[in-house]
Amino acid sequence: DSGMSWDFFVPVCVGDLVKTGGINQYVVQDVVSAKQLPSCLNKFKAALRSQGPLCILEHFDTGYSVLQHCKAVDLAVKEDTLELLVQVVSGLSVSLPSILVSTSLSAAERKEKLNAVKMSVFLLCKLTENLESDSYRQNIGGKKGKACGEGLVQWDSEREQVLQALVQLFQLDIRSLWSLSLVEEEFISCVTCCCYKLLENPTISHVKSKPTRDCVIHLLGLLIKKYNHLLGAGVKVIQMLQHFEQLSSVFAQAVSVWSTEYGVRAIIGEVIREIGQKSSEELAREGSGVKAFASFLSEVSALVPELMIPNISVLITHLEGESHTMRVAVCEVLGEILVRVLCGDGLDESGRADRDRFFDTLQEHLHDSHSHVRTRVLQVYTRIVNSKALPLCRYSEVMELAVGRLMDKSINVVKSSIQLLAAFIAHNPYSFITIEFILFFSLSLPAVAVIKASELWAAMVPELLVTVRKELEPTSEEEKEQQEDEEGGEVEEEKEAEDDRATAVKIAQYLRVNNVQYLTFSSGSDDDTSELNQNLPPTPQKEPEKEGEDGELKKQEMLVQYLKDTETFALQVERAISVINTMLYWKTTSVVQEAVQFCVTVCEFSVANSISGVRKMLPLVWSTDAAIKDAVIHAYRRLYLNPQGDTIRTKAQTLVDSLSELMVDSSLGTIQCLEEIVSDSVITLMDISVCDARAEREVVLSNLDTLCSVALGEKVTEDFLLARDAVITICNITDHVRQSKGAPFRLPQDHQLFTCLTQAVAEGVVMEDPYWQSFMEQAVRLIYFLAESPDQLCSRLLQRSARLLLDQIAEGGEVNKDAGQMQDGSQESNEQLNCVCLAQLLAACGCVAFWQVSHLERSVSAELRRRRGETEEREEKEKGPAGKQTANESTMEEELGLIGASAEDTEAELIRNICETELLNLLSAFLPLLVRVCGSPGRYSHPQLTTAACLALSQYMMISPSVCEENIRLMFTVLERSTLPVVRANAIIALGDLTVRFPNILEPWTQNLYARLSDEVPSVRQTAVTVLTQLVLKDVLKVKGQVSEVAVLLIDPDSHINSLALNFFNELATKDNAIYNLLPDIISRLSDPERGMSSEDFNTIMKQLFSYITKERQTESLVEKLCQRFRTAKTERQWCDLAVSLSLLSMCERGFKRLQECWECYSDKLTEPGVYQPLLSITAKLRRGAKPQFKAQVDEFEQRLTAVHTRGLENVESPEMDEENQKAGVSAEKTVTRTPAPTRGRLKSKEGQESACFEEPCCRNSLFLILVTR
């Protein structure tokens, strides 16, 4: 009624409303049962329609009853109630504005409206909390049936309606409804509790919950701004972050909105102060919420960095705390401030001081004790550099620190360092300045410069020559004479600097007169100029007469400093490139990927020496790790196989230029790697031109005729390079035709193509053309690909070539006779020509032999299989009588001469017979000549002839086992004794191929192959390690002790060989126990006194090899094996090597126990410092982080080591031995059971030579002890 005499007080507990209250306090009179609720709700709904929102005053008990019976009533009842309450609150939001501004509002009306607001808001908030709990329970327990699922979906939309209604209400200034506008805390808590309840939902941070999240944030913002919830919100944020880690991003967004849109900046201070006051002990406890705090700080700083600066001093204290998570967060806050706020030229003095202080703090934590902090600080710096927020004066210092972090023990730190260095190079400020700028400032100012003009000029000559060539070109005879005089004067060292300076000054004057722009920037934007000028001290104001002079001097000083920084930066980049290049062969895939990406970056920005890394990564295209291989292929495609251009021709030209740049000075291995990359990436221009016509053989043949007439016509001998490329193109355009199913595509022998090819090859034999050999190889390959009976064609080709050569030699002899006498020089020249021609003939013989074998084993074998398949298919279709089929098969097998063998074996045997008989008959005429040339290096000393003969002989040896066996000794003699490195390298490659083809014949010669790893020429060693790597990793060669020769290459002076050896062991480590099985043998060979390896080199090699031993069982076994070898080691140096090897093992408890058990093996050698010190270092490693009991054992072992080292074994009793002796009752014979002194003499091997004695000594030592006891 209008004379309302009661007040509604928001209860602490819902149940309090049914208890007797104070004077004029509303109490619920009628709690309706669950069954009666639907009818009561209908009355409520009717009253709402008729009376409006004030009906809540009469029907509050109905809403309260729904709350009381929440667990019992249906979901539909609660949803109906919720809908009614939303309508009530929305209705109040509509009706209140006019009332709030009214000046004639009576106290009773105000109380009525106030009670309606409090009642409706109370019920709405409590029912919302209840429904939220139901929704959460259903979510956790799984959806039970369709109804529950629909309810959940519906609740998401209903929840938004509730929040929108509350926001709409609280946006009004309803404080005037209260006496003196003092809103009671319980009412506000009722709303805020509902908000925080909704935020506890695990999905609140998901994208689908964004509308709900935004509404909650805005509702809390209103309560903070207008209803005094500031302190409560600060406390609640901290509490909820502790318990709900996923809310860090939500509250970061909330605090950002409250401080900006609602203008309550104090909220950030409140929350940060609470976090800042957390002690290290609190944060260390489980459930402290340290991760949520850290994430919250990072995200708030990303949203409102400018508001973090006033509160940063509170957070800085955490940098000295124990929590590395908080240290990371504070560093990220500093990074955001530096990138977004304290950057640019417009900072005042206070801003610059803050910026410098923050940078100093970040730099300190590049050396933080925790690797995660170091990683994140490097990432912060990467963002700062990418944002161009790093002052120029700090570039060198930060870059030096980043290069230093490349040596960090943490892989993540190393990767982040590489990323930072790549960012430095990508945003290099020193590349913007031009030569004109430096020249103007350095040469046109007074001669007080630190850098001499002559020095600058010497460095700038190439670029300046292009820039001002026209100005310095002589235009008259007098100027030409003057220039000649100046050039002549360059010989005199005293005048050189003066002439250079005079010329440079002339250029500087020209540049000033013509108003040359002194700065050009790559992007053309003002950002770069601000970066260049950033942090340079402002020029102080001077008196007018001194201002000009001091300004010029200031510019000079700035330039000098800038040039110094440029030099420092360049040196650091060079150092970084050299270090990161070595990481390309690390075992960690992610580091290799980062190193590859860095190499791409430096190459794209044309950094000096960047090509070294790009070339070094190339062998990784053979890596067994797919991620590394893909990274390398992607890098090369990005750098070289992604041509730019508007037309196909332009793109093709760009592609050719890129690949040509890479091919300069490339080795055979590099070319093979490139072929692997290019094979899937490049489509040649010729391929593109015929791609639409590939299905038509006639089109292919017409292209052949065109190419023959243009590139292989009458003038073919004038340009063998063009002819070679034409042959390669023909191979490409006929490739799809040759590989199609059905009968093979072959052209008749009298086709114009083969006529041209054979004539060009034969005529080229007697010519000296550097491109003939590559043309010949491609021509022979094409003949075997396309010609019918290519063996006959090539036989005639060789006969014709030999006849032409003999005719030339005969003609030369007749000329000599006709002349009667001739000069020695002319005769020698003629012999040289004959040697070259003979070399070319032998090269053609070898090439024919190689492709003939390939033709038989590929084309002929494939054709036999195809015909057999057709025959079988045809016979199946005919389904003739079984007897007829059997007769046909018997007839075929009788013709082949191998009745009863399988079809595949029959075909393989047929090809072997052809190689042994018919093929040798075809090519045997040249074999004696090859053997003679290879076997008489003194007589046939011409390099080209020797090289061609050896290569051809190896290709002949591929034909059959008999030829291989007959000449294998000669080939290895050539490998060891040839004076030509190219011959030795070719022999290694050839013998590698022969090892694959005839492994049984080559197996006894394996040691001779390994011997080339110690060749004096780097190119031969490189070829040897490449070939052996392939043979070993493909299981062609068994891995034996000779692999120690590969281990020696780990310290090779050639860095590329070093990398190949490292790659060998990295790949070998992927095979089970391979390196573990080899290690004892490698140690024996490397520590052999006859090898004479220094202890430093031995340690370096062993350190790398032992890094592959990671299993405890392997470590334990190796400890025992190495300890046993102390007994048979002959020299003190070998003892030391064994001790060092033990110290390099990653020792575990089991390994340490085995070391103790083997005490007798090495205890008598402990007087040697080289044995004692490495073993002592083992105890130091074991003590770190050891448990007390194990630590006591380590200490006791160390005491024994030290005692024996200082006093000698004979003066120290072993506790274990004493116990054993007492048990056995032979305490009187202690001295007999001690380990005998090592035999100083050497044992003799079967051959009578001194042996290394590194075999397992167990049996011999056991026998020796028995004899002593007797």
Descriptive labels:
phosphoprotein, Condensin_cplx_su1_N, ARM-type_fold, histone binding, mainly alpha, 1270 residues, cell division
If you had to describe this structure to a student in words, what would you say it looks like?
This protein has 1270 residues and is mainly α. The protein contains 59 helices and no strands. α1 runs parallel beside α3 and α42 packs antiparallel against α43. The longest helix has 55 residues.
Helix percent band: 55-70%
Radius of gyration: 45 Å
Straight-line distance between termini: 123 Å
- What is the structural class? mainly alpha
Low-confidence stretches: 143-149, 432-452, 486-497, 511-542, 682-696, 819-826, 897-901, 1215-1270
Strand elements, count: 0
Can you summarize the main beta sheet?
none
Residue-averaged pLDDT? 75
Tally of alpha and pi helices? 59
Strand content: under 5%
Task: Tell me the overall shape.
Answer: elongated
Domain Condensin complex subunit 1 C-terminal: 982-1142
Pfam families: Cnd1, Cnd1_N
GO molecular function, one term: histone binding
Subcellular location: Chromosome; Cytoplasm; Nucleus
